[in-house]
Amino acid sequence: MMPAVFLETNRTQIAKQGIVLLEKGEKITKDLLEEKGKNTKVEEQVKLSDKEEADRNREFIIEQISPELMVAEKGGVEDILFSYFAVSLPEGWDAKLRENENKKMQCIIKDVHNEESGEEDKKHVPFYEHEIIITAYEISGMPENPLRLVERLKQYFTVPVLYSVEPVDTTAEIAGTCWLYGKNRQKQEFEYFFFADCGDDRWELYHVAESTNTSIDYEIESFGDFLDEGLVTITNKIEKKTYGREQKAQDYFLWKGSANEQLLVVMEWDRDVVIHAYKRDDYSEPISTVAVKSFNPGHIIIKDLDMDGDDDFLYKYWETEIAKEGENDFEGCIWDEEKQRFTQLSHEEMLKQSIFLQEAQKTAQEEFALSEEKIQAAIPKELIGYLSEYLLKSREELQTIMQPMVSDRELTIEEVQALAADNPCIKNKLLEIASCPWGMGTWLKTDADNDGVTDVFLCEYLGGSLGSVYYSLFQGQEDGSYLLTDERELLKEEFAFITFEGKQYMARTTWEFTKKLYDGIALDYYENGQYQGTAWIKIAEKTGEGARSTKLAYMADERYEKLCEGLNAFSLKYDSDIEEPVGTAEQEIETTESYDRLCDIDNDGEDEYYHSYIWMSSNYYTVDYLIFSMQDEEKSNRINDVLFEDETGVPLYVWVDETDFGNITYVLQEDGLYDFHINGYLITKDNYVKVIQTNCSVQTQIEVDYRGKETFSFLQ
C-alpha cells in the first residue's frame, strides 16, 4: 500500500518516486488517486524535474563583444544599429563607438545640444554633457527560468536595485524587450538590460547605462525618454516591446545567511509588497512569503540587523544615518531562522529586536556627547574671542579682519571639469548642477579636514525659495584622487575657510531666519574627511536689571502721560516668544469664521470682528510680519493703513487697551535683532492720531554654543 505523506506547509508537486503528497487530513481512496492522475502525472513530473535539473546545471557564460555600428539616415532621422540593438536618434543626439578598458567597443549615444552649431533652435546648457553607454554581450547557456537568469546576471552586474517590468514564465518571453532595469547608487547611474534571441542557444544582452543627472530643458533628455517614445527596438524580434520606467513589477536582491546559505529575494508589487525568498538555484516555489506595506526599494539596506548571522532588510530608510535619539522613520524585515521566513517589524519593534540598531543608537548618543567635547577642544578660545570682539561691532569691521584669514581658493569651471574627468564623484556633482535650470555651485580648493592633503569643497545651491544648499567635501587622497566623504544640507549663508594657528575652519556668517538679520558666526570643524561639529558664536540679548532702556514720547496732553507707566512696564518685560498680547478692550471669541476678537477699535460705538496673527516666513526672501483682517473690508483697509504707517520697523503685534478717553490701538515693531518700538494710536471713524511711542534698546552679549554632529552613518 502506498504511504501517505502529510505536510504542514504548502502542497508540493508529486515527487519522482511516485509518492502522492496529500493535504493534511486527506485520506487515500481509489477515486482520489484516479483524480490526481498518479500514473500520468508522475511521468510528467519526472520530465519536468529533469528539465529543471538540466536548466540548473547549464553552464551560463557571458562575454563582452564588439559589434559594428551601422548608421542610416532617412527623412532627416538618423537610425543606428549596434548588432540587433536599434535606436532612432532625435535631434540633439549623436552616436559613436568607443573602446573601453576591456579593449571592447561600446556604443556611445551622446547629448550634443551643447556643441556649438550656430543653430538657433538648439539650447545650450553650459558644461552639461550626458552620455548613454551601450555594451553588448553574448550569452550561452541561457537559463529558461527567469529567476535563475536574474541570479546569474546579478553576479556579473552589481546593480543594487534591480527591477523587472512584469513577471514571465520563461526567458523566451523577454526576447526583444527591456525586461530588467535598475539604479546603481554607487555610480549614480540608471541601468537597462535588453535581450535578443539569436538562435542556436545563443543570446545577446545589451547593457545600457546613463547618469541619473539629466537636463530638463530638452524634449528627449534621457534614455528613459527614448524608451517612452518608442525609439528603441531589438531588430531580430518581430514583436517589439518596450516598457516605461514606471511599470516595475518585481525587485530582486541577493541575500546571505549564517551558514553561507544564499537566497534570491523577489519583491512583487501590488497594493502591498509581497516578499518571496527562494533558495539559490531552486525556484520551484518560495521557502518564505510575507506581505509588507508599500516602500521604495531604492532605499532598502540589506544588513544583519539582529546580529544572528543572517541578513535582514531595512526599508523606508532615506538617509542611511541614525539620529542620536533614534527618531528615524524606518521599518524592516528580520529573518526568522526557526520559522524560515521573514517577519515584518515596525520602527519600535526593530529597535527592540535589532542589537545592531540598539548599538548604533547608543554609539550615536555617545559620539554626540564626545563630539561636543571634541569641538570645544578643537576650536581655540583665542579664535572665538578674537571674532567675538568684532562681531559686536559693525559687519564691515568683521569682514575686514576676517579677509586676511581666508585660506581657500575658488576653482574655475575649467579646473572643475579637469577634476571631473578623473573623479566620478566630482563628475556626478558637476552634471547634477548643470542639469538643473537653477544649477549653481561654488567650488573651493583647501585642506578642509586638516590632514595635510588638499581637498575639494562644494557649496551646491539647490534652488527653491527656502535657500537650501549642500556642503560637500571631496577628500583628497594620497594618489591625487578625490572621494565624496561628507555632505550636509543647510541654508544659504556667506562662508569661507579660514586658518588660525595653522588649522582650518569653515566660517559661516549665520542669520536669524525669521528676521533675515545676521546674528553670529558658525565655525565648522572637519577631520578625517567628516564634519565633526560647530562652535556657534552668537549675538544674544542680555537679560536682567539694566539690560534694557526705554525712551518714551507722547502728545502734550496729561491724559496721554497716564499711558506711560503701563507701556514702559510692558516694554521691559516683553519677550518675542510670548503669545500675541490681548488688550483690555478686546474680547476673545470663537466663531465659525476667521475672526477671533471683538472690539470697538475705531471708537465709533460699534464692535468690530477681526483677526491678527504673525505670518511665519518659510523662505529665504521674507521675514515674519503682522497680518490683520477685519470682517468689514472698508474698515479693514483703513486700520491696515494705520498699522503699517510707520515704515521704520517690522510690525508683529497689535492689541487694543481701554482708557478713559477711548480705545488705544498699540502696534509693536521690531527694529533689529532685539530692539523694538511701540506706537499707540487713537483711531476714530474719520481720522487717527499717534498719541504715544516708546523705543526700547536691548543690550547684547556674545554666547558660544558648541554643537556636536547629531547624526552618524552606521550602515555604510
Blueprint (SSEs and pairs):
Elements (H helix, E strand, L loop, with lengths): L4 E2 L14 E2 L7 H7 L1 H20 L3 E5 L3 E6 L2 E6 L2 E5 L3 E7 L5 E7 L19 E10 L5 H11 L4 E4 L13 E7 L4 E9 L4 E10 L11 H6 L3 E3 L15 E7 L5 E8 L3 E7 L8 E5 L8 E3 L8 E4 L5 E3 L7 E6 L4 E5 L1 H7 L1 H24 L2 H11 L3 H8 L6 E2 L2 H10 L1 H11 L5 E7 L8 E7 L6 E9 L5 E10 L2 E7 L2 E10 L4 E11 L2 E12 L6 E7 L3 H4 L2 H10 L13 E2 L8 E3 L8 E8 L9 E6 L2 H11 L6 E10 L2 E9 L5 E8 L4 E11 L1 E9 L2 E3 L3
Parallel strand pairs: 1-2
Antiparallel strand pairs: 3-9, 4-5, 5-6, 6-14, 7-8, 8-9, 9-13, 10-11, 10-15, 11-12, 12-13, 15-16, 16-17, 17-18, 19-20, 20-22, 21-43, 22-23, 24-25, 25-26, 26-27, 27-28, 29-30, 30-31, 31-32, 32-42, 33-41, 34-35, 35-36, 36-37, 38-39, 39-40, 40-41
Helix pairs in contact: 9-10
Can you walk through the features of this model?
It is a single chain. It contains 13 helices and 43 strands. It has 716 residues and is α+β, with helices and mostly antiparallel strands. Strand 31 and strand 32 form a beta hairpin. Helix 9 crosses helix 10. The longest helix has 24 residues.
Keyword list:
alpha+beta, 43 strands, disordered N terminus, 13 helices
| Count of DSSP-assigned helices | 13
End-to-end span in angstroms?
A: 59 Å
Total E-strand runs: 43
Broad structural category: alpha+beta
Strand fraction? 35-45%
- What is the makeup of the main sheet? 12 strands, antiparallel
Radius of gyration over C-alpha positions, nearest whole angstrom: 35 Å
What coarse outline follows from CA principal-axis ratios?
elongated
Q: Any low-confidence stretches, pLDDT <50, length ≥5? A: 1-30, 36-46, 238-246
Helix coverage percent? 10-25%
